[in-house]
């Protein structure tokens, strides 16, 4: 009989994270972490449920891209050129085993977001969003310092 863990039945919250932070570090650092990401859809393959996101304030030719597994989310959110907010878990992927075109593996850093929540957020001021993330991080840092002393 399978054991069930009832101590925390809810999915983990997504920690606000920027795409370059994910892609620029070792895949082991973020493996299985729950994150919230904002990005612009550069490519989308509905048949394979794979999207490529880049930072909204960078040109789509930027080499920093995050590969997203969209199987659990609404396909209507992934219109090329639109901004989306995703919550999900990061996992390492073996890019040499991918059967996708180069567009879907280039620049992703060997990590993929398995999205479980998606929302189209066209019109979001990304610069203000980034400032909000910085303020949230500072607040959490201050709170952690208070609780540790």
From TrEMBL:
GO cellular component, one term: CST complex
Transmembrane segments: none
GO molecular function terms noted in the UniProt entry: single-stranded DNA binding
Superkingdom: Eukaryota
One Pfam family cited in the UniProt record for this chain: Ten1_2
Cited InterPro entries: NA-bd_OB-fold (IPR012340), Ten1_animal_plant (IPR029146)
Protein name: CST complex subunit Ten1
């Amino acid at each position: 009989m399978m054991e069930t863990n009832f101590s925390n039945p809810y999915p983990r919250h997504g920690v606000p994270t920027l795409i370059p932070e994910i892609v620029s570090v070792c895949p082991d650092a973020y493996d299985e972490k729950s994150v919230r990401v904002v990005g612009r859809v550069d490519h989308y393959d509905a048949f394979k449920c794979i999207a490529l996101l880049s930072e909204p304030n960078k040109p789509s030719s930027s080499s920093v891209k995050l590969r997203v597994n969209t199987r659990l989310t609404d396909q209507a959110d992934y219109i090329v050129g639109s901004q989306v907010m995703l919550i999900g878990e990061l996992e390492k992927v073996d890019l040499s085993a991918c059967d996708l075109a180069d567009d879907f593996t280039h620049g992703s850093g060997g990590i993929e977001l398995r999205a479980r929540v998606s929302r189209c957020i066209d019109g979001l001021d990304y610069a203000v969003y980034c400032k909000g993330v910085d303020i949230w991080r500072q607040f959490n840092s201050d709170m952690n310092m208070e609780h540790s002393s």
